[in-house]
Amino acid sequence: MQIYDGLFTPSAKSEGSFNAGEGFGKKWGWYQSIYALAGKDVSRISEVTKISLHQCLIWLEFEKEKNDLEQKMIKNAYNKNR
User: Fold this and answer.
1) CB contact set of 64 (below 8 Å; sequence gap of 6+)
2) Residues 37-74 pLDDT 10s
3) What is 4-47 written as a DSSP string?
4) What are the C-alpha distances in Å from 80 to residues 68, 72, 75?
5) pTM exceeding 0.70
6) Radius of gyration of the chain (CA)
């Protein structure tokens, strides 16, 4: 199928494929969030899509803020040790 060209023919540019200018997020959109909520486990995708949108978004916002804080702390520790 043409939709999966990028998967089976690395040199093919499938519809919606990305390059440095367009960005990964533009191609994959909401699938990134579902992937994260499923813990990178394809067998859990159906399970995740049954959870309320509100619960999913709260979890994702928490994860984002937690990751941002951790990155800031790592950066500060790195700068102190320079």
Assistant:
1) none
2) 999 999 999 999 999 999 999 999 999 999 999 999 99
3) GHHHH-TTS--TT---TTT-HHHHHTTHHHHHHHTTT-GGGHHH
4) 18, 12, 9
5) no
6) 17
